[in-house]
Amino acid sequence: MGSCTSLSCFCQRPFLFLFPGPGLFQCSLTGLVFDVTRESEVTYKTLIWDPLVLQPAHKVAGGPLFGIECPRDSIRQLHLPHCEPEPALVSDSISVVHITDDGMSIIQPLEITETHVVVDVPHLSAFGLVWDLVERFFNYMTKPVRGQVLLFLRNRPRPILSVMLLPGNVPLHDVKAQHAASEHIEAPSFCYFHKGQKYSLSSAPHHFKIQPARAEFFENYGPNYHPTFEIILTTNAEEVMLMVQDPEETRVWEHDLHLPGEP
Question: What InterPro entries does its record include (predicted)?
Answer without folding.
Answer: FIIND_dom (IPR025307), NLRP_Inflammasome (IPR051249)
